[in-house]
Known about the structure:
The chain is built from 26 helices and eight strands. It has helices at 2-32, 44-56, 65-91, 104-132, 142-168, 178-185, 192-216, 224-233, 266-274, 280-284, 286-289, 296-316, 356-361, 367-371, 379-393, 398-410, 449-454, 456-472, 488-492, 496-512, 523-531, 545-555, 584-591, 628-637, 649-661, 673-680; strands spanning 444-447, 476-477, 517-520, 541-544, 566-570, 596-600, 643-646, 669-672. The chain crosses the membrane at residues 6-31, 69-90, 110-128, 148-168, 174-190, 197-217.
Amino acid sequence: MLSFLNIVVFLAITGYATYLFVQIVYSRIVFIKLGKKANLKKDAAIRVNEFLTQVFGQTKLLKDPKSGVMHIIMFYGFIILQFGAIELIIKGFVKGFEYPIGEAHKFFSLSQEITTFLVLLAVGYAYYRRYIEKVQRLKRGFKSGLVIIFLTTLMLSIFFTLAFEHLWLEGSGGSYAPISSLIASLFAGMRPEIAGALFYLFWWVHLLTLLAFMVYVPQSKHAHVLFAPVNIMLRDTKPVGKLTSFDFEDEEQETYGVGKIEDFRQNQLIDLYACVECGRCTSMCPASGTGKTLSPMDLIVKMRDHLTEKGSAITSRTAWMPSFAFAQAKGSFPMHDEVAVTTEQAPALIGDVITEEELWACTTCRNCEDQCPVANEHVEKIIDMRRYLVLTEGSMPQEASRYFQNIERQSNPWGINRKERLKWREGREDIQVPTVSEIEEFEYLFFVGSMGSFDLRSQKIAQAFVKIMNTAGISFAVLGNEERNSGDTARRMGNEFLFQQLCQENIANFQAYGVKKIVTICPHTYNTFKHEYPEFGLEAAVYHHTELIWKWMQEGRIKPTKEVEESIAYHDSCYIGRYNDIYDIPRQILTQIPGVQVLEMARNKQDAMCCGAGGGMMWMEETQGKRVNIERTEQALRLNPTTIGSNCPYCLTMMSDGTKAREMEHLVKTLDIAEIVEKAI
């Protein structure tokens, strides 16, 4: 009778919990499908490789080794424990049930107990990090504590269920069930019928906790268990940070950019439910770290809640399922009278959900994306919303408007007469800088860029690199007054139309002069030429000047023989580093120079902090918190260097301003790699 009652109650509760689980998960899928189709490339090999390395290899999580190991134990622990969970459930209907695997069951039992114990330790460590150590990036609210309670209850109920089963059967698991047997020994002498009753008590505790957790997961941050693997599998396989283009010839296009949550592509919306809320992105964000309102994690969470709210409003009017299916991300089940707001009443994505201050604080450094364990892409979402503000609403900071006007009129950020692009080569009799119209053949087009052409400090970088090319006997030319701004910054500030115009003008010039190889001193130009211009017709190899300097050093064209006594705190540019994975080459160059000592900042290579100039911030004022460049400069100064080294004109400017702000410019120089190499030759 008890067994029959167990079966009836089990089927009723399990069926209802499963119904709720499916309903909630399906609702999230429907919300995601409100977005635009993604049209992803069919790069199966790339996707499978990333899936295996990130999902099963947990590579991103291991960036923080402590929490990484903890998560690996939980991840694989839950996979292993599913086999034991099935056996444990059957035990509630068949007394003393064991898988019919003979002597191997002893080892199966041992593996289950060890795994359960390890998961319990991992949960304990999670509690310690969150509530005792109080790691800053981790939230400490009710929902976080609830998950720890769920997991602890699940693990302990396994041990107690097995322990009382031993007493009920008047036996012992022995050395193959060490923990449950130890617990059973504490209740030695208990009557079998009492042990049986306690077995069922803990069996039901385990089952109900498991089902409650199953229903809770898809409506909490733990939805990442379901959506993160899908997110990794369906992410864009385009080059890192490459932006999606608009077709301005499409007459049906009425708005540009993203002004509503459903304007995002479907694979972008998967990000929202894949978010772990681990705070890794925010902890590394230069804007968040210096007191700006932008928090990459909060941005994703607010957009997720907005999508859930708006999706509930839209789908509830179709009456495709009862309203309680749309459990909000806060974790509650709304009743029929708790109807979500209608689409017309829904808050605006930009303004109500995400503020303009947040959008304009982003430096596009991608530190958030590099840290994210579930492959979320924050930067393109921010730029998509900037595009809406700039191209559709015509709303932007005054500095951005002035920047666009100067680029449109003179093709440089300052509005200096475009005919002065060649003035940087004047006054240097020791270098030869031919233009494409002054020379018939050349191997490399040196794209000087606006910084190298007009900024007095950056001109020295261009001159140093030319000196290196002259010394190495390299055939090159510059476009001179025919050169246009690369358009990279305009694009990341949201002005896609201006970017495409500049892109097409530059490509036309490249094609007119038969350019096959391009080198630039600017990582931003390098990145956009290499990864974004090909979509518009560029067919040329693109190099950053450090790549060629190292190549020429290896070939023996450049021999840095002069001693340069400098202790150099090296700063990694975001657009060379995280965008293009170039970390070793600049360091290899410096180590080949006699007298140079390379100093590594606490945040270096993949974890290097942005200088604060990217995403258009070079041309805008920081009105909130501490200036990013000051924070980064202070990190370098802690090493007591004689020089701060860089490979980017933007970075060099920001670090130079930083040393001046700290009144250290007379003690600490700021130099580009090219300038340091020039000293050595």
